[in-house]
């Protein structure tokens, strides 16, 4: 039997602050799935500007609905806040109160949880992955014919595809120009052997699961070209490589292959990559669709409360 995700309704708890809005509840739902999001990530999904997001998130932080931590960029520049669910998260999200990770906790213990999140060695990859997905959502707001139909976190994806022992940083389904393309996202750490080892698990997916491309999100164009050369003679899953500074919905995705060595390979757009959802069988329980990742099936309007 296919397992489907049935999102709960976003109704505030009677003990919650009375001025928590539907948009606030949607922010909390996203934080529940992805644990840590930056101000810019949240602004791209829900708000008309970064300033508007900063103002509202500051209020939610004061209400203990969200927690935040100042995050500095590795190459310098102005820091921004990272947000996670706050101590009162179960009061405004009662449908999740039975989950151990969403229970109301003392503020001091919650601060410890936030510190563990920001000290996680994989945090940078998580933020980069969330940046790709929120950039796709921002693109879709200006291009109504496009849509991010599914956005799953790394842990949720790993659990759904546990039999294949893959651990991507995320999984999504992108719709554009009449095509629906599923993909797995892998952040690049700069370690060639680690990258090859992680890609090896995807070779088993076509047997019973989806045949989705693996997107490799590199730190810069130089590393992107190094990865293209590394994978030029590899026989494995469909892979597309791009630099994280680029617009993910744009014509930036390179498919490594022998022709790259001759300089004949041009980039393509995300919706142009080959994609197959796989057989509709019990062995492919995470097949798309059954349901969209968003509670209402649609994102809230960017300027709505």
Automatic annotation (TrEMBL):
Residues 271-305 are annotated as: Disordered. This is Protein involved in plasmid replication-relaxation. It comes from Longispora fulva.
């Amino acid at each position: 039997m296919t397992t489907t995700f049935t999102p709960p309704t976003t109704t505030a708890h009677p003990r919650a602050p009375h001025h928590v809005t539907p948009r606030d509840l949607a922010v909390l739902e996203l934080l529940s799935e992805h644990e840590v999001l930056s101000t810019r990530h949240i602004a791209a999904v829900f708000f008309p500007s970064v300033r508007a997001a900063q103002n509202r998130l500051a209020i939610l932080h004061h209400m203990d609905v969200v927690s935040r931590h100042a995050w500095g960029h590795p190459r310098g520049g102005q820091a921004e806040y990272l947000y996670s669910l706050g101590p009162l998260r179960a009061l405004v999200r009662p449908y999740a109160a039975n989950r151990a990770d969403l229970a109301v906790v003392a503020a001091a213990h919650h601060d410890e949880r936030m510190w563990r999140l920001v000290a996680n060695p994989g945090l940078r990859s998580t933020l980069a992955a969330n940046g790709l997905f929120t950039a796709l959502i921002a693109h879709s707001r200006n291009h109504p014919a496009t849509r991010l139909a599914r956005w799953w976190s790394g842990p949720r994806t790993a659990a759904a595809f546990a039999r294949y022992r893959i651990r991507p940083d995320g999984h999504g389904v992108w719709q554009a120009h009449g095509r629906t393309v599923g993909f797995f996202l892998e952040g690049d750490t700069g370690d060639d052997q680690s990258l090859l080892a992680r890609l090896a698990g995807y070779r088993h997916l076509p047997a019973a699961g989806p045949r989705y491309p693996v997107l490799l999100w590199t730190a810069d164009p130089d590393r992107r070209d190094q990865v293209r050369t590394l994978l030029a003679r590899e026989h494995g899953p469909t892979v597309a490589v791009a630099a994280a500074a680029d617009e993910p919905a744009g014509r930036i995705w390179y498919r490594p292959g022998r022709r790259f060595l001759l300089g004949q390979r041009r980039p393509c757009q995300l919706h142009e990559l080959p994609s197959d959802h796989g057989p509709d069988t019990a062995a492919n329980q995470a097949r798309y669709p059954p349901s969209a990742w968003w509670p209402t099936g649609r994102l809230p309007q960017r300027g709505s409360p």
